[in-house]
Amino acid sequence: MIRATTLERILVVLSDFAALSICFALAFWVQFHSGWIADKFDPSKTFNEYWHMGLVLNLGWLLLFTCAGLYRSWLLMSRTHQILRVLRAVALGIVLVIVGLFGAEFVGKVFANSPLSEGYLYGSRFPWIFIYGGLAMMLVAGFRMAIYWCLRGFLRLGYGANNILVLGATEAGQKIADALAKTPARGQRVIGFVDERFQVMDHKFAGYPVLGKYSDLPALVKKHKVSGIIIAHDSASPQEIMRVLVWICELPLHIYIVPELYGVVNGQFKANLVYGFELQELFAFTMPLWQVRVKRILDIVFGAFLGLFSLPVCILAAIAIKLEDRGPVFYSQERIGLYGKPFTVYKFRTMRTDAEKFGAQWATKDDPRITKVGKFLRKTRIDELPQIFCVLKGDMSMVGPRPERAVFIGKLREKIPFYISRLKMKPGLTGWAQVRHHYDTSIEDVQIKLQYDMYYFENMSLLLDFQILVRTVYVVLTGKGAQ
User: Fold this and answer.
1) How far apart are CA 332 and CA 48, in angstroms?
2) Gap between the Cα atoms of 176 and 190, Å rounded
3) Most buried in the list 236, 305, 411, 478, measured by CB within 10 Å?
4) Hey, what domains does the chain have and what are their CATH numbers?
5) Residue 244, pLDDT above cutoff 80
6) Which pLDDT does position 159 carry in this prediction?
7) How many helices (H) and strands (E) does the chain have?
């Protein structure tokens, strides 16, 4: 079954395209067939001659709407807020249309020092352009409101809702479940409870099944296609909540907490108030969807450029490694990526070939296992360049937390609260933690880097990525900030 959010985006894009197509068709009729614009009246013009221009214009509008964030999920958000966002996007679009139609002529007159006639500034076409914009705003907003009215109707009938688990068979959990059941238009359906105190499965609480214990969460999420979890164990201690979060924060879920418990974790990490409902969302992913897509495009573009640009450096590095000890140039390891997915990472070898004969271990300051060439490669970050292949493949991004090995994640998740939350981000070739702190040599280093990683997660944006890339260039050229 298609979820409401997926169906929403499909229908909204189609409705926007239909609304803009109607606007273009009316604009064509007004310009050439209505006779209202005397100098453009030409009944011999047919729509077949111009439909391709309308297609290009509509695609431009859709791109603008994407950049304006109009294709995120608005189903449960304020309709007034959405209409205002549509108005702002259309106003910007009309400015771009005017610049496209008259910009070159305007600039030409300015450089030629020609006077701008009153007819040019207030010509008969300008009012029609604004009318076109107003009509576009009304149709786009109107079609969207009709779609949301229909989708909310489907949600009230129980179709397309997201599955939710409540952690804690408690009075607070029952209130949340009942409130969501009474407002199905919110699109959240509680399918059951999870609680450590109920050892016998198929137990009922407040009319809902108790599906298992906290340790069963990963299996339950997969089995029931759960999209969100609400922590409602009102008698839980901070330690117990931390233990629960360790089980679930690596999963692709929305994690909510009831207001009574927010004081327990307040100050540990950022939380967002869920719009229209008394829940706090933990580890909320705040990067707009359009920026996520642009980030992936930039990963491919920058990755390909950096790969070609650095090819001579890579060849020299490979020759230097081979000349030093005749060992292999590259080494590969399995690392853990987004939401715990394993992938193979490639790097230039910077240590002796027997560096891990006694098992996996962290590098230390002045580590004797690091070769002379390897020390230089690490200081300049050249050893990381083969990971560009992982970026192009999609396992990594240009910017993100350092990918870690499963053996270390298993140890660190038990020692450092919320360490596993790093798995909610795609690992990166460089990152805020990498340019702010040196290589990990101890648990203390890992804790410091986790703070940087969580700062990046909570403030993730294309602008911050750009700042990190600039700082990375500085680190590579000066060697400062790297070990």
Assistant:
1) 57
2) 9
3) 236
4) 4-156 (no CATH), 162-282 (3.40.50.720), 289-478 (no CATH)
5) no
6) 78
7) 17, 12
CA distance 78 to 281: 18
First-residue to last-residue Cα distance in the chain? 51
Q: Please, are residues 317 and 386 in contact by the beta-carbon 8 Å criterion?
A: no
Q: Which residue has the higher pLDDT, 299 or 433?
A: 299
φ/ψ (deg, to 5) at 99: -60, -40
Could you give the CA distance from residue 346 to residue 359 in angstroms, rounded to a whole number? 19
What pLDDT is recorded for position 275? 42
Q: Are 347 and 383 in contact (CB under 8 A)?
A: yes
CA-to-CA distance for 335 and 342, rounded, in angstroms? 6
pTM of the complete model beyond 0.90: no
Give the Cα separation of 145 and 349 in Å (integer): 58
Place of tokens 């640009």: 309
Q: Do the beta carbons of residue 231 and residue 257 sit within 8 Å?
A: yes
Q: Cα(186)–Cα(166) distance, rounded to whole angstroms?
A: 16
Residues in Cβ contact with 102 at an 8 Å cutoff, skipping those fewer than 6 apart: none
CA 130 to chain centre: 35
